[in-house]
Structures are given as C-alpha cells and as structure tokens.
C-alpha cells in the first residue's frame, strides 16, 4: 500500500498511450502513401529496438532531437539494405511526426484506472516526449482532461531520469516526494529517476515482467488499485 500519496504521475508513451501499436499503424500508412519498398514487418523488427536505443542516446544528451528523428530511420533502412536519400528520410520523418498522434490506441484499462483515480488523487504526466506532440496524443485520445499538469522534457529543459524534471513536478504540485508516485515502463527513466528524488514508483511492464526489488511491478494498469 502507498500511504500518504496524494498525487499520481504517469509516463505517457508505453504506459498509457500504446506507442508501439500506434507507431506501427503510422508507418503502415506512410509506407503505403510513399511506396517504400520495404516489408513493414521486417522494418519494425529492426526499428523498434533501434528507436529505443536512439531515445536512450537522446535522453542522455548524446544526440539532438534532429539527429534522433533522422538517424533512427536512416540506420534502419541501411541495415535492411535499402538506403534512402536524405531528402526521402526527411520527408518520412516529418510525415511520421505529423501522423503519429492521429492514432489513439491506449493500453487496456487506461480509462478505467484514470476514472478510478481521478476523484481521489491529482493526476499528472511526466514525459520525455516532445511537448506539442504529447499534447496532441492526450487530446486525440480523449484523456487530456484527466491531467492537471503535463510536464515534458522541453518544458523542464532536461529529460528523465534527471532529477530536475521530477523536482519541477513536485514544485508544480506543491507536495513532498513521499506524497507522490511515478508510474512508468522504463526502469531507468521512470523508476530510478523517481526514486532518486524520493518519489514512490510502480514499474509498468505490460503482461507482467521480472520482479527486481526496486519497486512493485505491475502488468495491468488495473493492478494500481491494489496500492491505494
């Protein structure tokens, strides 16, 4: 049980908003529109881990946003033996960003748990995603009204797990760390980042995962109920 908690902070991508599913649908759409000669299944098999790796570099400040958006695509097409001109990569990248937030699949029980928590706790988002895009995801998925504060890395000037983004969240909600819990899918960014500033944490691993002793692990969002 999480006693004394008054505020709940959620990660967005991979926690509430089903990033991999929505991303796959986006690529299917733009590949069809641009006649990209690559099988979507083969592409995603390489892209999904590559994208996570590039996001880790971005989170650590080792690459810029522009490099992230370009190289996560160019590297994959090179790996698949279908290198594309820079102009084509740039077009695909822009199209992907424009269409991604138009898909609105959420993880099972997202709305149910938000409905359960909203009357009892303040709900907020802490995300490393880009501000405008994350706001569109929330709005298009019809869950924006559940959240009081949406704190993104562009607003904070740093990315999770940097403690400053969590401290901004604490300042904006006016609480002590022990009064808040962070719920997210990434062990380093969400769990360890939150724990470093004294927040409680729940590690969301869809369909369950290995327990690690740092905090509780949940495989379904409805399991959150058992901690309050």
In words, what does this structure look like?
By secondary structure, this protein is of the alpha/beta class. It is 48% helix and 12% strand. It has helices at 19-34, 40-59, 65-79, 86-100, 110-117, 131-140, 153-156, 163-173, 187-196, and strands spanning 7-10, 122-127, 149-152, 180-184, 200-204, 216-218. A 6-stranded parallel beta sheet has the order 3-2-1-4-5-6, with helices on both faces. It is elongated and about 55 Å long. The model has no long low-confidence stretch (mean pLDDT 95).
SS summary, helix count: 9
Which regions contain 5 or more consecutive residues with pLDDT less than 50? none
Average pLDDT for all residues: 95
Could you say which overall geometry the principal axes of the C-alpha atoms support?
elongated
**Largest sheet strand order:** 3-2-1-4-5-6
Report the sheet with the most strands, covering strand number, pairing sense and barrel closure: 6 strands, parallel
Kindly estimate the percentage of residues that lie in beta strands according to DSSP: 5-15%
DSSP E strands, number: 6
Oligomeric state:
single chain
What is the SS-derived class?
alpha/beta
Q: H/E order of the elements? A: EHHHHHEHEHHEHEE
Could you tell me how far the N terminus lies from the C terminus, measured between alpha carbons in angstroms?
Answer: 6 Å
The Rg value, from CA coordinates, equals 18 Å
What is the percent of helical residues? 40-55%
